[in-house]
């Protein structure tokens, strides 16, 4: 049976594995590193080579939006600026004043936001002019790893691609002072955005089947066309398949923050994102189940935007907030409110998209906790499908690599389906309204 070597390059680790024609991976090699707003390109390249056993990958899933400047010899001049880097907030605001921001969003699928390249390039030009002038190429990490041009999928996540022309956007290039030849040629390397790969790997490639990924951050995506909405992004899997949805800057990272800040007692809660072994997690789940507590019964309203905001409001200056505290409020109440709060923001994104028949769950933070899966099913009011695989993006890169060879990989098997509980719908709808009121009162985008 034929195999391909697939890599999944994320903001905190690289995973590599040989994947066969049935979509099953051999043992996955993972190399971790510290996540952050900036990543060292050479360290990340070494980690990718280690995860791939020194072989050239057949398919690469890579984080979108990362910007790296290279010199004339193809060596890094800067670290990789990831989506977590929001230093270019002022430059994003300047662009929005100079340009028709809505027209840019419609053309490129990306808002004028510091996560994307236009603002990042302006920031680099202003704050590190020597590096900006010396840069021969501005690339995504996958371009640097594979040593060639960029794919439509990776280019679509930069905020600089005209989605109709499938070429770099001239107005934006003029606005940021970058000549087209300083950007990679749009070619066909075997690299795709990690979100697109997650949809493919999880079998979420039909317009009525959404993919929800919660790892460090959160994203909700559909493969297919959707009417323009200011809340959403529009990227590409390839020239024929758009990927529309929204991304939150918070997910499993909020739980990690709560665990550190509240010093949650392991006897009273469970750890997400694989923090404990399966046997311990199972025993802890028997001790307490957040999903069995009354829906939003704590009376709290939690805004989870600890890392600023992307979708739906795209307000980088947004902050987290917690309202409704009482003397009897417990750490478990706060944890439940946080998980529900993230689910409510996901629901805001889902409401901006065509309705999905079901939602496929991916991402380590989500798949590590049955309670969160159930809460999301109740909030989204749709079944949540749990597959047998955790490495959706890795599998997606392999599926797309096989697709290039004319080989169709069967969809992944379903482990279980989490059905929504209608008796909880009204309580969650009311809690969503309270969260929306808190958001509007504190940090409506400006």
Please give the number of β-strands: 20
CATH homologous superfamily (4th level) name of the largest domain: ATPase, nucleotide binding domain
Q: Provide the CATH architecture of the largest domain.
A: 2-Layer Sandwich
Q: Major sheet: order of its strands? A: 14-15-13-12-18-19-20
Instruction: Tell me the structural class.
Output: alpha+beta
What's the main sheet like?
7 strands, mixed
Count of discrete structural domains: 2
Q: Within the CATH hierarchy, at the fold level, what is the topology of the largest domain?
A: Nucleotidyltransferase, domain 5
Measure the end-to-end span.
Answer: 56 Å
Number of helices: 16
Calculate the mean pLDDT score and round it: 92
Fraction of residues in H or I helices: 25-40%
Description:
Helix content is 36%, strand content 19%. The protein is α+β, with helices and mostly antiparallel strands. The protein folds into two domains: 3-189, 2-Layer Sandwich (Nucleotidyltransferase, domain 5), CATH 3.30.420; 205-446, Nucleotidyltransferase, domain 5. The strands form six sheets. The chain has a seven-stranded mixed beta sheet with strand order 14-15-13-12-18-19-20, sandwiched between helices. It has a five-stranded mixed beta sheet with strand order 3-2-1-5-11, sandwiched between helices. It has a two-stranded antiparallel sheet with strand order 4-7. Strand 9 (161-162) and strand 10 (167-168) form a beta hairpin. Helix 4 (117-127) packs parallel to helix 8 (170-176), helix 9 (194-202) crosses helix 15 and helix 12 (331-351) crosses helix 16. The chain is globular, with a radius of gyration of 21 Å.
